[in-house]
């Protein structure tokens, strides 16, 4: 093994201007059209500017994008698997000409970089999804983001970095590639094996990483992702405190911890290649890839999007070209006789094996059940229990959706009263009509306005949930993509239970309690849900209720029983 490995493409592309250059750029940028970077773009731009995405020198141009999608390579032939694009709205794009400079700012307006726009185009997102994710199924979180969150127009061009995006947390643990390379050099670490993770680490991970370091005779870098991971993952604050505890359990001077502000795409095999390139840029020589690396979870029909070892195979194929070595790992299991974890393919029939899957671990955490000593360290369990109390102490959003007149509000009210009677929960009802009066009085019923309305409800519900309360919401919420965004928002901080009040349209119309259906039929109310506007039925709600043969009281009772069985109410 030679001295320090070169970055991908041979040169670390740090895109920051000098101090005086940045000052001049700030002045000039006052006249540029400004774009407020989204959370995803803030992650991407940080890694573009600090060289983690070398050799990229900006957001992909159209030619680069086409080439990455078609060949997984940049136009001059270098491997690059994931398109890094600047997506914007049509309104913003309409004001930009090729050749213009634009100002890229953080949400507070701080200028992060400027970009010389060389390309403006509308991508074919289905094509992109199929190329990057191998599917255009919007159940896949990466595809969903691409189709429903990312803007419709891409801008490409070179960046000039003015200021790194600001972080107030764990500053000391955040490194650029040159900082980490400098640290390795100082410590004399010539071989470094990186461990990528988006989950808390337990003893099995420790054993796996120690073995990897031993086998490769390398030092170990714990390189967890703290940017954007899979919706529903444990928040990075909790995880980083866990990693800090874990670090103390490694032999001294062998292991380092550094945080990577990456926005993951959950693209499985292609993402594994991308992770390898990034780690190479950070000065690592090896990357551990385990089972289901960067996996997006299963499709709706229960089948996985990628084979569990597809990521390993992909990296196997390209490791020589990339000049970073794959360290493949099988799943680790605990062998009682040895009091130790071993890879599952090394288990012999005489061994007694103990296993605790991630799902089972999370269930025990949720329900406050004992977690065995062999599985993790007490400080790590305590950290997780502290931020993830059992379900009956966690916040919750109960989200009703259904047609006007389906009975949502009545059942929601009945449920509210039953929960108040129990007295163990603090409850708020965000009813459709009430929200429209207090939060959304200026909004109408176009798709855009309905979405704004639902996202406002989702935001308030997620805040209530975050602080341990129960938010009951009862809007029509006709669009599944918007409901899903609300779910993602809420699940970041607590439970989400979707209840489809599936009373058929004919019944709602026959009841017509507010006389609105008659007016809608007569054309006096436009865009009326079910009549002249769509209602997309939820495919997988936690519960479906048809009020034809069920009184509101009984419906609310059933929901309460369901909440008990899910562990949210005791
Ligand atoms: S949405 O789509 O979720 O934003 O709708 P929501 O905020 O729940 O508001 C629905 C209530 O507004 C009344 N209303 C209409 N509903 C549907 N379509 C149109 N065009 C419309 N115009 C007014 C209606 O009374 C709904 O109340 P509920 O309680 O659902 O019957």
Please give a structural write-up.
The protein has 570 residues and is α/β, with parallel strands linked by helices. Helices cover 39% and strands 16% of the residues. It has 20 helices and 19 strands. It has helices spanning 19-29, 39-49, 62-71, 90-94, 125-133, 141-149, 177-187, 203-216, 236-247, 268-281, 310-322, 358-367, 378-387, 408-422, 432-438, 447-466, 480-491, 505-511, 516-521, 552-566, and strands at 33-36, 58-59, 86-88, 101-105, 111-121, 153-161, 192-197, 219-224, 255-257, 286-289, 325-328, 332-335, 340-343, 353-354, 396-401, 427-431, 470-474, 495-501, 543-545. Strands 1, 2, 3, 4, 5 and 6 form a 6-stranded mixed sheet that branches. The chain has a 5-stranded parallel sheet with strand order 9-8-7-10-11, with helices on both faces. Strand 4 (101-105) and strand 5 (111-121) form a beta hairpin. Helix 5 (125-133) packs antiparallel against helix 6, helix 14 crosses helix 20 and helix 16 (447-466) runs parallel beside helix 17 (480-491). It is globular and about 75 Å long. The termini are far apart. The model has no long low-confidence stretch (mean pLDDT 95). The structure holds 3'-phosphate-adenosine-5'-phosphate sulfate (PPS). 3'-phosphate-adenosine-5'-phosphate sulfate binds at residues 404-405, 409, 432-433, 436, 445, 450, 453-454, 475-478, 514, 516, 525, 527-529, 533.
Summarize the topology.
Elements: H1 19-29, E1 33-36, H2 39-49, E2 58-59, H3 62-71, E3 86-88, H4 90-94, E4 101-105, E5 111-121, H5 125-133, H6 141-149, E6 153-161, H7 177-187, E7 192-197, H8 203-216, E8 219-224, H9 236-247, E9 255-257, H10 268-281, E10 286-289, H11 310-322, E11 325-328, E12 332-335, E13 340-343, E14 353-354, H12 358-367, H13 378-387, E15 396-401, H14 408-422, E16 427-431, H15 432-438, H16 447-466, E17 470-474, H17 480-491, E18 495-501, H18 505-511, H19 516-521, E19 543-545, H20 552-566
Parallel strand pairs: 1-4, 7-8, 7-10, 8-9, 10-11, 15-17, 15-18, 16-17, 18-19
Antiparallel strand pairs: 2-6, 3-6, 4-5, 5-6, 12-13, 12-14
The protein binds 3'-phosphate-adenosine-5'-phosphate sulfate (PPS).
């Amino acid at each position: 093994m030679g001295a320090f490995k070169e970055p991908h493409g041979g040169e670390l592309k740090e895109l920051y201007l000098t101090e005086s250059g940045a000052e001049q750029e700030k002045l000039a940028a006052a006249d540029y059209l400004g774009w407020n970077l989204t959370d995803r773009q803030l992650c991407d731009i940080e890694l573009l500017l600090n060289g983690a995405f070398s050799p990229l020198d900006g957001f992909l141009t159209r030619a680069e994008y086409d080439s990455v999608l078609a060949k997984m390579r940049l136009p001059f032939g270098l491997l690059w698997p994931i398109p890094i694009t600047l997506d914007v709205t049509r309104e913003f794009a309409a004001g930009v000409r090729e050749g213009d400079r634009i100002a890229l700012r953080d949400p507070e307006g701080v200028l992060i970089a400027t970009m010389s726009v060389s390309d403006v185009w509308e991508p074919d997102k289905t094509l992109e999804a199929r190329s990057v994710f191998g599917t255009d199924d919007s159940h896949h979180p990466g595809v969903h983001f691409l189709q429903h969150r990312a803007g419709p127009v891409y801008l490409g061009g070179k960046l000039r970095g003015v200021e790194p995006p600001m972080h107030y947390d764990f500053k000391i643990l955040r490194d650029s590639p040159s900082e980490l390379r400098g640290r390795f050099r100082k410590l004399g670490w010539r071989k470094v094996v990186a461990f990528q993770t988006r989950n808390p680490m337990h003893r099995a991970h420790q054993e796996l990483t120690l073995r990897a370091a031993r086998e490769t005779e390398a030092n170990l870098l714990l390189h967890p992702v703290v940017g954007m991971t899979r919706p529903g993952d444990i928040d990075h604050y909790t995880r980083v405190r866990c990693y800090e505890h874990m670090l103390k359990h490694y032999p001294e001077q062998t292991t380092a911890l550094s945080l990577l502000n990456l926005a993951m795409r959950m693209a499985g095999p292609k993402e594994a290649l991308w992770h390898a390139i990034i780690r190479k840029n950070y000065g690592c020589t090896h990357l551990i890839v385990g089972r289901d690396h960067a996996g997006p979870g299963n499709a709706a029909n229960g089948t996985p999007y990628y084979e569990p070892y597809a990521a390993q195979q992909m990296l196997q194929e390209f490791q020589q070209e990339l000049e970073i070595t794959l360290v493949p790992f099988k799943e680790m299991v605990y062998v009682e006789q040895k009091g130790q974890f071993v890879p599952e393919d090394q288990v012999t029939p005489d061994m007694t094996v103990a296993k605790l899957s991630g799902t089972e671990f999370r269930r025990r955490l949720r329900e406050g059940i004992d977690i065995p000593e062999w599985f993790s360290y007490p400080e790590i369990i305590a950290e997780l229990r502290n931020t993830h109390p059992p379900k009956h102490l966690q916040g919750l959003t109960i989200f009703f959706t259904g047609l006007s007149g389906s009975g949502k509000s009545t059942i929601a009210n009945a449920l509210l009263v039953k929960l108040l009677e129990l007295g163990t929960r603090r409850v708020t009802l965000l009813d459709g009509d009430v929200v429209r009066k207090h939060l959304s009085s200026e909004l109408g019923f176009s798709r855009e306005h309905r979405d704004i309305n639902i996202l406002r409800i989702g935001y308030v519900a997620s805040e209530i949930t975050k602080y341990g309360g129960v938010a009951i919401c009862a809007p029509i919420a006709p669009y599944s993509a918007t409901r899903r965004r609300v779910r993602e928002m809420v699940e970041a901080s607590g439970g989400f239970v979707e209840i489809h009040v599936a009373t058929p349209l004919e019944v709602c119309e026959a009841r017509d309690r507010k006389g609105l259906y008659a007016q809608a039929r007569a054309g006096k109310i436009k865009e009326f849900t079910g009549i002249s506007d769509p209602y997309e039925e939820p495919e997988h709600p936690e519960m479906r209720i048809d009020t034809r043969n069920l009184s509101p009281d009984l419906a609310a009772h059933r929901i309460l029983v369901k909440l008990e069985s899910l562990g949210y109410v005791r």
